[in-house]
1-acyl-sn-glycerol-3-phosphate acyltransferase
Amino acid sequence: MTIIRSIIFNVLFYLNLIVQMIIFTPYYFLSPRKRAWAIPKNWARSNLWLQKVFAGTDMEIEGLENIPDGPYICAPKHQSFWDAYAFLPYIADPVYILKRELMWIPLFGWYIQKMKMVPIDRGKRSAAMKTAVKGAHFAVSGGRQLMIYPEGTRTSPGAPPAYKYGVAHIYGELGVPVLPIAHNAGLYWPRRRFLRHPGVIRCRILPPIQPGMDNDAFLKKLQEVTEAACDELLVEAATSANPPPMPPTAVRRLKELGVEI
C-alpha cells in the first residue's frame, strides 16, 4: 500500500508543479515580486495537502511564535526535499542560496529569477562564498529572510552532524538573528528514495540565536540546539505507536541515546 500511495503522490506532486506553473504564469510574471509570492506559497501548501491525503503523511509545527520580524537567517535541518518548500508559507519574503544550474531549467529557472534568488557555482568555493555574502547583504538590506541549510546537503536522520562554516561566516557578516529549525522529515520522505511513509512529520522552530556572538561559538550553539531538538524528535517518532522505518543512521543514533527499537 505504501508503494502505491507513494507512486500516486509523486505523480500528483510533479503534475501539481507543472500545472500551477503553467496556469499561474501570467499572474506571476505580471505581478510585483512580493505579491507574486502567493503562487509559490500556494504550491507549497497544496503539496502538503497532497502528501497528507494521498501519502498519509501529515505535519505538525511548533514554535511559530519564535519567528522574528524583519530580516533574519533561517537555518533548517536538511533531510529531505520536503524541507525545501514546507516552510515557505511561514516566511514572509525568503531568499535561497542555490546552485546556479537550477536557473537553467526552462520556466522553473525563470520563476527563481523573478524572486531574485542567489545562484552560486559550487565548483568554485571561494567565488561562491563571495557571491553568497554579497547576495545575503542585498537580501537583508531589503528586509528579506535568507534561507541557509547549515550542512549544505541532505543528511539522513541520526547521521553525525557536519555543519559547514559558511553559515557562521554569513552570520558574522550580516549581524541578524538566526532561526534554527529541527524536524524529522527524513524518516517519512527519505532522501534519494521515492517512498513516502505515513505518519506525522514533526517540526520545531527554535528560539532565534541573536547576532553578536563569536563565529565559532555561534556555529557550536547552532549545531547543539538543532541536533538536540532533532534527537528528541527522532526518539518521539521511534517510540510512537506507529513508527516509520528507521534508516541505519537513525538506529545507531537511537542506540547512542539509549533507545532500543
Notes: The mean pLDDT is 93. The radius of gyration is 18 Å. The longest helix spans residues 215-238.
